[in-house]
Amino acid sequence: MGESPGCCSVWAHCLHCLYSCHWKKCPKDRTQTNQCECIWFGLLFLTFLLSLGWLYVVLILLNDLHNFNEFLFQHWGHWMDWSPAFLLVISLLVTYASLLLLLALLLRLCGQPLCLHTAHKVLLLLIILLVAAGLVGLEVQWRQEWHSLRLSLQATAPFLHIGAVAGITLLAWPVADTFYRIHRRGPKILLLLLFFGVALAIYLVPLFISSACIMEPKDLPPKPELMGHRGAPMLAPENTLMSLRKTAECGAVVFETDVMVSSDGIPFLMHDERLTRTTDVASVFPHRVNSHSSDFSWTELKRLNAGAWFLQRRPFWGAKQLSGPDRKDAENQTVPALEELLKEAEARNLSVMFDLRRPPRNHTYHDTFVNQTLETVLSSGVPQAMVLWLPDEDRAHVQQRAPQMRQIYGHLGGHSTERPQFLNLPYQDLPLLDINPLKPT
């Protein structure tokens, strides 16, 4: 690959110094970029694409990183919001790869040979290994997130395509400059075929884009109604009465929560099998921090604070934006009983849906926890229709005792007696074509 002397200016010398980390001028006998450096340039371009793609993955899955935080908490016992760290690291990687690629392209335009320093080469390999480890971890531990990425392209593909067109257009200039600097015919033809092949593929992509975002305004469907997962956990401690109130203020129609049964038979709101994450059990009952949440009596549960952790750990960014009265309210939250929740939800015109978690084997209500919860719902006096019953255990008995209660199913198959009208499924697992047959006629 022959090159003309180009612009031997101070500017070109600075670019050469930053790229090669050699502060002396390039020797006059070194006017060519050897084949090894061309391979490293290709690896640099690949690193840029990988880091940019990983940034897109992190941004799309940012809403699900709370699950990753909980996963680490369950295994390590220490809470930390990892989303800022993920964003900072990947942003630095993308910035580094982008600047290095820009230096290489500018050096090509100035006719300078490429000579990547060993430190840059090591960092490029580390970036590739880091991104590869992230992709492998995603495949092994959170494979369902690939469906989230696929669905996200329905919204982002048109805009990503515009960016790709702009990128290939800007790349045409250094490609043309390289083409005219090459003297051998074979590499020229290869460069043209590669560039025009990529450009043609990019320009044909719109033929394969199916985006729900591209439609006439008159064809827009009505907005879906909102459901608060554990209430409004970004504005209040999860699974508390304050979270329920914030859910109503946000205009949601359903409060989704998790229910366990205490050792003395009182259903209460709690997600984790251990109380350490969302209560002060470590200070109130220091010798029982590893006990199952259902092993505590209702009297003991009422002694726990279920809100101070929200202000201390700040699981979501909204915690530091709370007003003074809201902060005081959060600090005073306790573990609510299911009956309390139902009455508060009725007053605020909210429906309630909950996961019901079976107690441990040695628990008094291990076999009767469903009936115990059902009795609490029926004795609360709230309308049956405001309860969305999700547990599959003893569903036939529940339907017989509370026929007006709306039954929510967590899977598609196995309903021989009726066609389900309400489903609680991960959005990644239910294509639109599967929903249409379930609509009531």
Automatic annotation (TrEMBL):
Any single GO CC term annotated in Swiss-Prot or TrEMBL for this entry: plasma membrane
Membrane topology summary: Multi-pass membrane protein
Residue intervals of the GP-PDE domain: 224-441
Membrane-spanning intervals of the chain: 38-62, 82-107, 119-138, 158-176, 188-209
Keywords from the named record: Glycoprotein, Hydrolase, Membrane, Transmembrane, Transmembrane helix
One Gene Ontology term of the molecular function aspect: glycerophosphodiester phosphodiesterase activity
Superkingdom in the source lineage: Eukaryota
Single Gene Ontology BP annotation: lipid metabolic process
Family, as annotated: Belongs to the glycerophosphoryl diester phosphodiesterase family.
The protein's name: Glycerophosphoinositol inositolphosphodiesterase GDPD2 isoform X5
